[in-house]
Design brief:
The chain is of the alpha+beta class and 74 residues long. The chain contains two helices and two strands. The radius of gyration is 21 Å and the shape is elongated.
Amino acid sequence: MTEQNETQEIESNTNESKVNEVIIVKKRTLINCEEFVSIQLKSSEGTIATLLKKAVSATQLRNLEEPDNKLGIQ
């Protein structure tokens, strides 16, 4: 490796370490179905607390308003 390549590699590693990441997987099990929501947020500017608030609000599952009679039928 040349000195320039080594410098670029170090800069890449430095930039990667500055990124905050939050991953949330939420599962809801009902009698006749399961619902999953998965959210992954990455930001080099936002704090973990900000990312966590955004991820939690994005995983809010809606309630089933009317039961779906087709669920569970094969």
